[in-house]
Amino acid sequence: MSAVISIDKNKVRHSFASAANTYDGLATLQREVGLDLLAKFAINHADHTVVDVGCGTGFLTQELMSRSDVKQMIAIDIALSMVQMTKSKLQAVDAVQAICADAESLPLQKQSVDKIVSNVALQWCQNLVDVFVGFKQVLKKEGRLVFSTFGPATLQELKQAWAEVDKYTHVNDFYSAEELLVFLQQAGFEDIQIESKHYQSNYQTVLDLMRELKGIGAHNVLAGRNRQTTSKSSMQRMIESYERYRLNGMIPATDELIFVSAKVGS
User: Fold this and answer.
1) DSSP three-state, residue 186
2) Is there a contact between 128 and 183 (Cβ–Cβ < 8 Å)?
3) Domain 9-153+173-202+256-263 grouped into CATH 1.10.10.1760
4) CA within 20 to 30 Å of 249's CA: 34, 73, 139, 183, which one?
């Protein structure tokens, strides 16, 4: 897959802005993945300036502040309402600065950051090589990029169920660990560590899964998606197809998460 995916960035911004008030109540997987990310790649005492890219409502930002002695934490998100939520949660913490900005164009000085952390956010970027090049520019020498992102097996059941209904792309495409490794190497990162893990969530119905995806802002944002409203008959056919995956009375949904750590050379 090319490093460039045609993503509707306005759709991304709108989707997450609309989900700000419901996100915390539904983002169980995102919190679990964020904690796993911090457990795998700990923040150390030398990380004085840390950037949380795609901070959402501030969960990971809070965790980072509680687990380390970071002198300056910069929380960045493309959706203003998410940034405002983070500000409201951390308004008493002087070390935190929340900024509304795009990960593909960080408003930061070169070599000003010790570590960049991002939890399930970079999959919404259009050109990951350019993103990684930009991250490398703002990181100090021997600075680290640590992130989690969805892999290609994510929502594989939903993707297959829709494939039996029509030829539209209903589920976002995600890069593999091998592709991410190549992109990071092209951007000039070193000491790259990558691992993947599958998570499974269970739901009473397919519609419960769909409602959760909407509630956390995880819409299909590919430019080639069907922009017309999905018909009730198509939705019903998809649900009937998905029902074949029902196990022990529950509807399963697979998510593949890829965890990455990469360093800037000295």
Assistant:
1) helix
2) yes
3) no
4) 34
Q: Are 53 and 134 in contact (CB under 8 A)?
A: no
Q: Specify which residues 162 forms β-bridges with.
A: none
Q: Which of 87-96, 116-125, 191-200, 223-232 has the lowest mean pLDDT?
A: 223-232
Mean pLDDT over each residue of the chain, to the nearest integer: 89
The residues spanned by each domain of the chain are: 9-153+173-202+256-263
Cα(246)–Cα(262) distance, rounded to whole angstroms?
39
Q: Yes or no: say if 64 and 55 are a contact pair by the CB < 8 Å rule.
A: no
Q: Indicate the Cα dihedral angle 17, 124, 110, 99, nearest 10°.
A: 10
Q: What is the dihedral of CA 43, 20, 7, 37, to 10 degrees?
A: 20
Q: What is the pLDDT of residues 150-188, one digit of tens each?
A: 999 999 999 999 999 998 888 888 999 999 999 999 999
What are 223-241's pLDDT values in tens digits?
444 556 678 999 999 999 9
- Under a CB-based contact definition with an 8 Å cutoff, are residues 125 and 104 in contact? yes
- 198 - beta bridge partners? 256
Range with the lowest mean pLDDT among 46-50, 96-100, 186-190, 255-259? 46-50
Quick one: which H or E segment has residue 224? none
Provide the 3-class DSSP secondary structure of residue 217.
coil
The answer to whether the CB of 218 falls within 8 A of the CB of 26 is no
Tokens of 150: 């969805």
Q: What's the rounded Cα separation, in Å, for the pair 104 and 132?
A: 9
70 residue type, one letter: V
Q: How far apart are CA 15 and CA 215, in angstroms?
A: 9
C-alpha–C-alpha distance, residues 221 and 170, integer Å: 9
- Token look-up 């169920």 returns 161
